[in-house]
Amino acid sequence: MPREQAIMECTVCKRRNYTTTRNKKTTTNRLELVKFCPHDRKRTVHKEVK
Length: 50
Description:
The protein is mostly beta strands.
């Protein structure tokens, strides 16, 4: 399977809020997405950890 699960961590509060999937073959770098952080109550950058 080329898809794997990625855990997203907020760069501000360092909490792991989201999970998503990514294609390992086409996306070789770690994901960086702007998502809503419920703890900070604003949109922040979330980076992939694992």
